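Hi, here's the filled form for the chain we discussed.

Project: internal
Contact: R.S.
Residues: 173
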Amino acid sequence: MRKAIFLDRDGTINVDVDYLHECDKLKFLEGAVEALALLKKKGYLLIVITNQSGVGRGYFPMKDVEKVNEHMNRLLKEQKAGIDGFYCCPHVEEDCCDCRKPQTGLYLQAVQEHDINLKESYMVGDKVTDILAAEKLHCGYALVLSGHEIDEKDLRQYQGHVFENLLAFAKTV
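And the returned structure, exactly as it came back:
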């Protein structure tokens, strides 16, 4: 079995723009590419798990999300930081699906498809919903401050698991 880093996309790897679906709007967060390359060097699979409710809201088709992911991965592979798998939930919260974080459907699919050992793996994201999924799966986790604002209560609750950004986390595992 292999170890993996499950990653949220927007706010963890790239700048979170509302409903990213255009390649020309992709901008990596400071240190993110270096962090991904470091994690690869340490032997981790890199798996993106992302909620993309813009699809469910009818703002754009899933093929636009896939184009952004492919573009992102082309750029990352040039830096030896390629993503091993992208898993996207296209639903809105009201759909009550099993693939939208904090549900674990996409994680379990990735675990099966990539033979991942959850006990040696981590989830890194910029929202508490990312952490809730990790807790359900009993894997490690990190909350990064590079995306959404996190309230003080959650910062206290997850103290010891909070990092400035993905690079700060990558240097610790």
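Let me know if anything looks off before we file it.
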